[in-house]
Amino acid sequence: MSASILEGSTPPPARAPRSERPRDRQISVYAELSQQVKDAGLLNRRRPYYVVSIVLTVAAFAGVWVAIAALGDSWWQLALAVVLSLVCTQFGFLGHDTAHRQAFGSHRVNEWSARVLSCGFAGIGYGWWMQKHNRHHNAPNQMGKDPDIVSEVLAFTPDDAAERTTGARGWFTRHQGWAFFPLLCFEGAALHANSVATLLRDKAMPHRRLEVAIIAARLGLFVAAVFLIMPPVLAVAFILVQQAVFGLLLGGSFAPNHKGMPIVPKNAKVDFLRRQVLMSRNIRGGLLTDFMMGGLNYQIEHHLFPSMPRPNLRKAQPMVREHCAKHGISYTETSLVGSYRMVIRYLNRVGLGERDPFVCPLVQSVRN
Hints:
Elements: H1 22-39, H2 47-71, H3 77-99, H4 107-122, H5 126-138, H6 158-162, H7 167-174, H8 180-184, H9 187-201, H10 208-229, H11 232-258, H12 272-278, E1 282-283, H13 287-292, H14 299-304, H15 310-326, E2 333-334, H16 336-351, H17 361-367
Parallel strand pairs: 1-2
């Protein structure tokens, strides 16, 4: 891999003819893959798939609440709390897909579908999530640009860990990898809280009052219904289990995709294809993995083609993998368990103060 990937890292060579410039070659490499994917029809919207998926998920949501009302005062309600978490996670995935315009031809229909699915069923703010997620897609794992590697709790970079070396916070940081899964149980509550806080704070966000009202109604009706159907102790247990499993399922689908992959320096300029492929990780598995992770197990393909419908990602994978091999670009794929092992090991190494817990191949190519 040549050092030209990181523009500005080395003195520029003599100006080459336009057709031979590295940037032009890099653009053409992605354009070649993009045209291949487009010719295969994999970027076409999949409206029937998403209409059926949305209808079935809404029906499942209604069915779970009918079962909750029928079961009443029974500790078997905790099993239904787990099922409800699974359904709400699917709403999160559907909101993600429609926000990426994967479902419908109309931008407006996609936007409002995402808003209803995210705010009304998952309880997550569409406007807040879009701002955050767009920045992540533009610069995955890049310091100072990707909001997904910024956390008040976990240190994702050595620089973050260097600021957390003393007292209880220092001890926690040194052992943070082992706290990763317990912390995921709070991810659902954090998504609710961050959504509302951002919507209340950012007065320029479109439809923010409507989104706040929808989320408040969704969460308020959820709590009220649970306490109306169940005695107080069971109601509290139901809410805690539902929120914990929701956070674990949703956060557990996001975490394996980038955590533990190379961290890119803030000022590095990386071409689009390598930026998306080298900082992402795919998860091996079958249809069950696709369902439980909402297609995010094909993270490389999703980052290269964000508007590609979820069911097409599996079809695009052989093309992308072959293209990466052709151009000498590392394509990372592992098992779900293996990915979590990498995340825990990475977080612990960062917490222990290792300066290069995962050496970025882009940076390494410049150093060599």
